[in-house]
Each structure stands twice: as structure tokens, then as C-alpha cells.
Amino acid sequence: xxxxxxxxxxxxxxxxxxxxxxxxxxxxxxxxxxxxxxxxxxxxxxxxxxxxxxxxxxxxxxxxxxxxxxxxxxxxxxxxxxxxxxxxxxxxxxxxxxxxxxxxxxxxxxxxxxxxxxxxxxxxxxxxxxxxxxxxxxxxxxxxxxxxxxxxxxxxxxxxxxxxxxxxxxxxxxxxxxxxxxxxxxxxxxxxxxxxxxxxxxxxxxxxxxxxxxxxxxxxxxxxxxxxxxxxxxxxxxxxxxxxxxxxxxxxxxxxxxxxxxxxxxxxxxxxxxxxxxxxxxxxxxxxxxxxxxxxxxxxxxxxxxxxxxxxxxxxxxxxxxxxxxxxxxxxxxxxxxxxxxx
Length: 343
Ligand code: PEP
Ligand code: MN
Fold this sequence. Notes:
- The two termini are 42 Å apart.
- This protein has eleven helices and 14 strands.
- Helix content is 34%, strand content 17%.
- By secondary structure, it is an alpha/beta fold.
- It has two domains: 63 residues, Phospho-2-dehydro-3-deoxyheptonate aldolase, domain 1 (Alpha-Beta Plaits), CATH 3.30.70; 255 residues, TIM Barrel (Alpha-Beta Barrel).
- Bound molecules: phosphoenolpyruvate (PEP) and manganese (II) ion.
């Protein structure tokens, strides 16, 4: 349930309510001071009697039950959008933030040339996989820690924050040492132990939607991370499985406005995995921005034909640059914007 405070209530009244909630075994309070009103969320199993108690306390306007199972990730308890800072980049406001880079880190040369190219075209964050989830055990599975070091170096040299995936709880510390954003991939969205572990990190978490997870399940996964102590979760729609075989996945563009209605967390789109085909990526990127996405994550490779993973969905430098022109135009049309590479 949430306690909606009266407009102009005193700090002391807010503290009294918070202390009252925290004083009950199994309950905790979550304060959200919005522009319009202050809301105190009650996390944990609260009885109807307790609701009545709270409703009679000074400064309280009303106490409203929350029917949704995700409390911290939902809008009810936190009406204002969450804006997540990564270096000098803010995700969740009115800037469309583009994360770009190769699917996998392969060599220093491949990564550095991509980092420079995507930065010059307007990307604000560099991506690159070092621990790769692959369907086949014989496929390239990433350079591991060596890849993390290359990524961190490329990030420092270009001034771009970096983002990479972690697949197991054992690797969380080393990935966090080298990465500014830690990615949980589609296959691990319901790996609850891993979600608990990244809940202890300070870095923002990029949480991909699984190819068979509902919005509610996805938001409950975000809830795991938030309940573990990390409030900075960026949601990423990356396509779901359907009966269609032409595309690798179907990018669910409706997820963008749906999640914005259900949650205060930033939502970005991944048209690379969401289509599996490079020629569809720019169109679906523009569609996602038109739908209100706070950002995009795009796979880019100096020579997609020779990529060790996800070549068919990777853009060349030239195609990425062209896409960015479209992204800027659509962002402007819907009242958002893309910051320039050097700002
Ligand atoms: C990736 O970003 O390279 C990746 C493996 O993504 P997903 O988990 O969405 O398949
Ligand atoms: Mn990939």
C-alpha cells in the first residue's frame, strides 16, 4: 500500500509515518518526494488494521492499496520518472541515449575502431560482450576478463562509459570492476540468484526482457534488483519469440509505452536482437524512438560479415551513421533529442 501525504505536510509528520512503518516487523518504508506530492510506500505484508492506523495519523491524505506485485518498480509508489546518471550521461529524461558497439569484443583494433566510429556518429555509451551467452557451446563465447580489460581501455580512451553482460554470480565482481553499466541478458532475466547479486552493486543494471517474459514478470525481475538495494535499473526491450521465422525475434515496440505507463524506470530498445537482420535495424530503431524509448542499444561492427557473433544484425559504421541522422530527426519530432557526440 502507499501512504499519500497531504500537500504541505511537515517533515516531522513524514518521519513519524516512516518510523511507524519501520517499527512493524517485516515492513519497510520507501519514500518518494515527487514534484506534486510525497508518497510513502509500505513494503511487506501489511494488514487492513494497519492501513486504518496509518490513515488516522497526522499529515496523511489517504492510504491506497497497490494491487500490482511489483512495488518498487511500479509507478504507483514512484510517480516521477527515474533518471539514471552514468558519467555525464542521463538515461530516462528527454535525451535519447544511444549505446552502441560490437556484439562481442574480438580484438583491440576491432573494438577501438568501433568505439571511435560510434562516438563520432553520436553514441554516448560503448557496448561489447566479453562473456557471451551462445546457443551452441562450439560458438565463440567471448574473451572473458581479457575482453573486459579491452572494453574498459576503449571506454577510457574515447571518454565513453561502457556496458557489458554478466552471466553468473561468480563473475559479478570482476564485471563490475571494469564496467559502468552491468547488463543482464535475455536468458538470465529470471535467474533470481543473479538478480539478487547485482542488486548489491552500485552500477546501474541494464535488464533485458526475456524472449518469453511478460511485462509483469520482467518488472518483477527489476523488483528483485531494486529490493536487493540497487534502484538503478534500465529496462531493455529486445524482442520476443513468435511463430514468425523471417525475423530472429519480434521487437515489441508497444512494450515502450506500456512500460512507461506501468513503471518509472527508463526503457530502451534493442532493434539488433529484436530483428536479427541489419536492414531492419534502422527502421525499428526509429520506430522505438517514435514510441518514446529513452534510448537504443545497437550492434555495430567494422566488418559484419566477419563478426564472431551476431554479424547478420550488425550495422557497418556507415549504416550506423545514417541511422543516427534518422534517430535525431524522429527524436526532434516527438519532443526528445539526441545529444551531440562531444557534448
Ligand atoms: C547481447 O546484447 O549481445 C545479447 C546477447 O543480448 P540478449 O540477451 O538480448 O540476447
Ligand atoms: Mn549480440
